[in-house]
Here is the input.
Amino acid sequence: MMKNIANIKSKISQLFFFTGDISLLFYNILKATFTRPFYFHRLNEQIVILGYESISITLVIGLTMGLVMTLNFGYGLAKFGGTLYVPAVVSLSLAREMAPLFTSLLVAGRVGSGIAAEIGSMSVTQQIDAIRALGTSPVRTLVVPRFWALVISLPLLSSLAFAVGILGGMIVCKNEFDIPIGFYFHKVFSTVKLHDYLSGIVKSAIFGAIITLFACYRGMSTKNGTKGVGESTTWVVVTTSILVLITDFFVSKIFLLIWN
Here is the structure.
C-alpha cells in the first residue's frame, strides 16, 4: 500500500516538473522572440523545411477527405432525400474540424518526429552543449525558428487542405449525385462563414505551437544515444497527436460559446 502511494506521489511530482519545464521553455521562446538577435534566415529555412515540404501530404489528405466525406455523407443523406445538403455539411466539417485536425495529425507525424530526431541527435552528440559553450542560446537558434515556422505554416497547410477537399467534394457531387457545380459552390460559400474559416486557422496555429513545443522539449532532453533518439521520436508522435485531439475539443467548445 505504501509503495503504491509513493509511486503515485512520484508520478505527480514528475508531472509537475514536466509542466514546469514545458512552461519555462514556452516563456523562453517568447522572450527570445521579442529580444535581439532574431534569426530570420533560420525562420525562412524552417518554413521551407516544415511547411513547403509538407505540401504533398497536405494535398493527399485534403483530396482524400473531400472525396471520402462527400461519398459517405451523400449516400447517407440520400436515404432521407437530403442529397442537396451534402455541399453544406462537407464544407462546414472541413472548415471547422477535418482540415485543421487531420492536417495537424499528419504534420505531427512528419514534422514532430523530424524535429525530435534532429534536435535529439544534436543533444546526444553534445552539439547543444557546444552551442551553449559558444555563448549562444539553443532556444534562440534551434527552437524559436522552428516554433514560429510551424505556427505560420500549419494554418496555410490547413487552408490548402480545405480548398483541395472542397474540390474533391465537387468531383463526387457532380459524378455521383448529379449536383451542378454552380449550385455546389453556392451552397459552400453561403454555408461557411468567416468565423468558420477563422476557427480552423486559429486551431491550426495552436496545434502547430503544441507540436513544436513538445518536439523541441523532448529533443533537447534526449539521452542514451541512438536508442534515446528513437524513444523521443515515438514519444513526440504519440503525445502530440493525443494533445492535438484533446485541445481540439476544448478550442471547439470555446468557439461555439463565442459565436453561437
